[in-house]
Amino acid sequence: MPNLARTLARGRAASAARMPSRAKVRRPAGRVEASNGLKVTAWQVVYEDVPFELSGEHRGASSSRTLTLPGGLTVQVALRVGKFTTDTSDPADGDHIEITAGENAGLVLRIVEGDWQDNATTRRVPVFAVPRPTEWE
Fold first, then answer.
1. Domains of the chain as residue ranges with CATH
2. What is the pTM for the complete model shown?
3. Sign (positive/negative) of CA torsion 98, 47, 68, 72?
4. Which of the four, 16, 31, 86, 107, has the lowest number of CB atoms within 10 Å?
5. Dihedral sign for Cα atoms in the order 19, 65, 48, 88
6. Closest CA to 25 of 87, 98, 129
């Protein structure tokens, strides 16, 4: 296993070096009352400034997924892959990623599936673009 550990360490370092962007990760943390009396989502910052890369799902291509929204509306969304370093230990389903620096700065993404895999050089999570939550203003 020592050889695997060295190989993983080299691969993880190389992967981190290729991450051109920085991101902030926020998690919905319940509902709170806003100053106007409306209930809004409270957001917990999970990561403030982490390395990040946005890519297509398979070899640079982007696939799509059909989602059914409340009220029965069905929409097709582009499904991409967000990549974090492996020390980003707990991205979760429903977390929102705001790209704060890089080619896609300002883009907001929602994590579809935050599960981890064994022996990976990068923490890859499927994501899709969403509007910036008004509570972040």
1. 2-136 (2.40.10.270)
2. 0.80
3. negative
4. 31
5. negative
6. 98
